[in-house]
Amino acid sequence: MSAGRNRLAGPLDDVAGEAGHPADHPPRVGFFTDTSICIGCKACEVACKEWNDVPEDGLDLLGMSFDNTGMLGANSWRHVAFVEQPRPLGHQDPGLVGLPTGPTGDGAMTEAVQPRLRAAERGGSELGTSPLHEPEHAGRVQDLGMPAFTRPGEAAGPDGRTDVRWLMASDVCKHCTHAGCLDVCPTGALFRTEFGTVVVQQDICNGCGYCVSACPYGVIDRRPGDGRAQKCTLCYDRLRGGLEPACAKACPTDSIQYGELDELRERADRRLAQLHELGVTEARLYGRDPDDGVGGDGAFFLLLDEPEVYGLPPDPVVPTRDAVAMWRRAGAAAAAFALAGVAAFASAAFGGRR
Amino acid sequence: MSGPHDPVTAERSSERGSAGREAQMFQGSMRRRRGRGGEPTVVPDAEFRSYYGRPVLKAPVWEWKIAAYLFTGGLAAGSSVVAAGADLTGREKLRRAGWLGALGGLLASLYLLVSDLGRPERFHHMLRVAKPTSPMSVGTWILTAFGAPAGLAAVAELVPRRLRRTWPARLLRRLARPAGLAAAATAPGVASYTAVLLSHTAVPGWNEARDELPFVFTGSAAASGGGLGMLCAPVEEAGPARVFAAAGATAELAAAAVMHRRLGVVAEAHDTGRAGRLRRASEVATAAGLAGTVLLAGRSRAAGAASGLALLAGSALQRFAVFEAGMASTKDPRYVVVPQRERGAASRGS
Fold first, then answer.
1. C-alpha A245: how far from its chain's center?
2. Which of A247, B106, B187, B249 lies 20 to 30 Å (CA to CA) from residue B36?
3. pLDDT confidence of residue A152
């Protein structure tokens, strides 16, 4: 495999060097997010917003377990996902046997709250910011997916009662080896830092929005009202000052680990082996493999289920991988277009008037 | 690794009530949708799991303006080829129509592109780099190389009669032909790069169409450029425009059909909803315009104009259809997860 090919896709040992930084640049850094020890405290989200002065994005209750952030975006550079899975847990006794089953609280509570939720303009997203009012006309029942009223598996009765597995994971920009956003940026606003991370220069970005469509993870977005693309910078300013990124600093369980990427990969491999040994066979690393579609992530994860369960793409590929093939097809189409134009006039000239 | 048949999935789909609803948020379900003929069909979706049904990708932030630009840019490219050909073969009215069409398409394109930026006043930042990995950067330079000479050739058409004897007007007239040829030489780039612009993204509806989209777009550009010539020039001058338009419309229809067949799961994003309606309307307009061009446009000015209009409409609808299909494909996690899962299964199997 030639080095030239890997400029567009595939493994790449020295991303910063490839981007033109001198040979004495610092080693590539990143995050290893071990979701098996995430407790869902969202300290990372808060620390990120505080340090980077990321504006608030509305106080909404989304009905997605404890996740009221939704997904990564221009105003959310860290996002903690909460996944509730009704799942029989092998050797555990949750101590629920013999307890009465039924809805959370009583039916009257549900009856009182649900119509209000339905009648609310934003379907209950107002919760926490403004009161809900009794609707004048009771309408069709609509499922808002609010998790608060019943527990997963509750409706199935005592026999079907299961335990709940609660997965939490703090998502972040992956700082890909081959970053789709960086490749397509037409102004040079996005650049590869000496640390191998990917950062938007806010004084250059003109908000063309191409990076938004090019990111195979759906991370970067344009900030409404501001017009420029925004995403995690891996705290470029802190890195330059010799500090670790705010989210990793704030993480109370070291679920978010910051460090040199090579070391993080070793650490992740050891942790994975340890978990497998303990019988957590569903543990897997995501974004660790330099042979994947983006050449490996600078920020990678240990997950306890399929990536799509956390809202991550199972097999992301940087669009640039197929750039040469696409331009070839476009060249053929352009040639056909030119040929048709020449032929149209030539046929009229030689074939007489039509 | 837990696949579609793991106990979690099986358990969830057997649950009813609130838990059943929850299951629907987690994973793909049966969907009732309408087939092309309008009869309702139940197609079992490939099973997939998601995070509360939330999208994996970000929907493009581009507005309708980008879809409109795909059309106006194609129109400018197609028209300039017609105009340059008409110039070389002495078809004055066709030439004039072509250059004015190219100028109109170009000015509209520039407005649409700049106003869609988040920071329009910084549009010139596009010109601070030339970046081969960015189709938008490549397109910026193609458009610049096309726009300057095309604008020059078009302005030469706009000189009022009373000023034509002045020396600047005579100089302009003399420059018009080489400028026009330069514009026509770069026009194929303008017509085709927009396909790469869309395909070079993570958007499944555009990325998966990458092999055929350039042919759809250049075909559409030729159909619109030729169509404009048929609309604006008399029958006896518009012969080459008809040939160009017919070739373009044929290519557009054929490439779109091939593209659609090879899209896999993502074809549904092109088929349903607004994208599907636009696509069908585009097919009808382009097919009607093609039939009119081949059968009637050589005999009557009215038929030529009507066919030209139909081709222009078909081309515009085609661009909006592709644009909308891409938008729709980012809003449903299925179009991201299912093809990637299939890809993974295929590579593990081999």
1. 18
2. B249
3. 53
